[in-house]
Structure prediction request, 720 residues.
Amino acid sequence: MDDETKTILENLRKAVFEYDNDLAAKSATQSVEKEIDPLEALDVMTTAIREIGDAFGTGELWLPDLVGASDAMQSAVPILEKEIKKRGAHRESLGRVVAGTVFGDIHSIGKTMVATLLTAAGFEVHDLGVNVNAKGFIDAVSKYNANLVVMSALMTTTCVEQEKVVAELKKEGLREKVKIMVGGAAVTEEFAETIGADGYDPTAPGAVALAKKLLGK
Amino acid sequence: MAIKGYTRNFPPLKILSDEQIEQIHTGTLKVLKKTGVRFDSERALKLFEKNRCTVDYGSNRVRFPEALVEESLRSCPSRFHVQARNHENDMVWGGNTTYFQALAGTRTVDLDTWNPRTPTRKEYYNGITVLDALENVSIIPWYTPWFGFKNIPPVMAMPEGLAARLRNSSKFTCAGYSMGCEVFNIQMAQAAGTELRTMMAASPPLTFYDETIDAAYRIIEAGFILLPTSGCVYGGTAPATIAGSLISGNAEIIAGIIFAQLIKPGTRIIVQDFSFPQNMRTGAPAFGSIEISMHQAAFNQIWHWYGVPTDGAVCYPNSKMIDYQSGYEKAIIASIGALSGTNTIWIQGALYGELAFHPVQAIIDDDIAGMLGRFLGGVNVTEETMAKDVIDEVGPIPGHYLNTKHTRKWWKKEQFIPKSADRLTHPEWLKTGKKDCIELAREKYEEICETHRVNPPLTEHQEQDIEKILKEAREHYRKKGLISDAEWEYYQKDIASTGYPYE
Prediction:
C-alpha cells in the first residue's frame, strides 16, 4: 500500500473518530479518484464506527459522539456506495436494513442511535430519516432489497403508524421477505406483538442483538 | 484522585436583615460581657486575666470586653490555605469556596436488615478507600468513617482511625481529642506531612472543659487549624429559639476564638455550627429538621459578616436507612448550606445522626455534592455559551444540536452526570433488573474497593514512623490502665494477624 493510499484510509478512520464530515467526504472522494477499493474504504469506516459503538455501549462515549461519528460516516458512504455500484461489486453485510421514524413523527435520535449501532455491527443500513410514510418504507424495501425494516415512533399518537406500514408490506406481498423491528418510547413488547412486528427492544444495543437474532446471524 | 472544590459565582442567600445581624451581634457581646463563659483550666483563666478579661476563679467564669472580641475576630484570617498529605488535595478555605466532607457514624449498618453493628478492620479501611475515591469528598474528618472497629480498645479508636486515614487516603484529614490522644495524632500528621484540623467543642451552655482546652493548646501550638464549635441543642442546652441559640452558640465560639488568638495571633480558624433542635419526645437531637437549615443559614450569614470561614452545614439525617427520608433530609440541609455560602459541608456517609455510616450512602451522597457543586458554579454566560451563531446555523426542524461541535464541546461542561442515580428509560430499567440508586451504589462500592489505590501511598519511612507512634500510644494507655487485660489480648491478636493493618 503506497503512502497516499495509507493517508486516505487513515483520514477516513480519523474522520469518524473526530466527527469530521468534511474530512470524511473529502477522503471518500480522494479514495475514489485514487481507485482504492471502495469496499476496503468502507470497511475502514465500519471498523471505526464499530469501535465508537462499543465505547458507547460501555458508557465511555455519549450520544453526541455516536451521532457525530454517524454523521461523518454518512458523509462518505454515498460516495463509496456509488463507486461500489459502478464497479458491480457486492458489499458483504449481516443484512440490508431500512430504518426510519414513522409518518407524523420527527424524533430522530432513537432511530439514529439504532441505525448507527446496526451499521457499527456490520449491517448495511439505509437511514430514511424522519416522518417516513408507509410508501417510503415500501419503496425502500424494494429499492435496497432489504431484509430488515426498523421503525421508530416516540409518541403514542404516531406508533399506530407502524401498524400501517406492516399492513402495507403485507398488501404489497413483501411481508414474508422482511423481518420487522419496532421501537421508541411509546412502543411496548405487547404493542409490537399486537401489530404483528417480529421484535421489539427498549435499548439501542439491544436492538442490534435482536436484529442479529431475527436474521439468524 | 485530586479533590474537587467549588466556587460560588453568585451572592449567598440572606435569611437575616442587616438589622437582625446587628441585634444578634449585640446580644452575643452582652452574653460574653455580662454572663461570661466557664473555662475549667487554670492556665486558660490566667491567660484571660492577663488580657483584660474579668475572671472569677471560684466559678471559672470569664467575662470578655467588647474590644477584645473585635480584636480577636479581626485576628482570624478570612481566607487561608490548608495542606493535605498530597498537595493536589490542598484547599483554600474562606471567601466563596465550598468543599464537601465525609460525615461519620459510630457503627455500620447491614444493608439488608438495617441492623447496626461494629465494622471490622477491613471494612474500616475499605470505607476510607471509598472516601478517597469519591471526587467530591475533600475532607475526611475525625471518627471517619466510624468511631472505631472490632478488637480496638475505645481509647485507641482515634489514633488507629487517623493512622488508617493516613494510610488509605492522601486527602486532608482531621483528628479529635480524647484522653490526650491529640499528642499522638499531631505526631502522626507531622510524620505523614499533612496538616490537621481539630475541633474545640464547647460543652453547652457556655462551658469549656479542661480536656478540650488542653487539646486546643496543643493544636494551636502545633500550628494546625482550629474548629471552634457549638454543639448546642435548642431547648436543651441553648434557648429553644433560633435567635437565642445563635447568641448562646456564637458566644461559645467567640470565647474559643479569643482563646486561640491570645495564644497565637493569626491562628487559622473555621467556625462550626453543629447544633440541632431538641426532639421533645425522645430527648435526642432532632436531626434532619428544617430549623437546622434556618440556624445554619443565619450562622453562615453572621460569620461572613465577621469575616471568618464557616463550617455551617452538617447533613445528619434522622432516617435509619438509606431511603427517601435520608435523601431529602440531607439534600435540603446541604442545599441551604451551599446557598447560604458555607465553606464546607458535611454530607457523605452518615445515617441516623452520628450513630451510623455506610460507604454506599457516601457514594449516593457524593452525587448530591456534585449536583450542588454544579449549581454553585452558576450560569456561564459568554459569547460562546450563548451560541447565537449555532442557533442560526441549525435553524428550525429538521435542524438539531446533537451533531454540532458546540454540543460536543459544551455538554459535559454544562451537565453534571451522577454516579449512582438511576437515569435509565423505564423499559431499560425493567430489562436491567429494576436497580435503584442503592443497588447501583453497592456495585460502585465493590468496583472502588477492587480498583482504587491511594495516591501516593505512605513511604516506608512514614509507615514505620506511624507504627512506632501507634505502639507508643498503645503502651501509654495500657500503662495508664485504660486498656483492660481482655481488650489488650484481643488487640494484640489483631495487631499480630497476617492482614494487619489493612484487614
Summary: Chain B has 18 helices and 19 strands. The mean pLDDT of chain B is 96. Residues 7 and 287 of chain B are 28 Å apart (CA to CA).
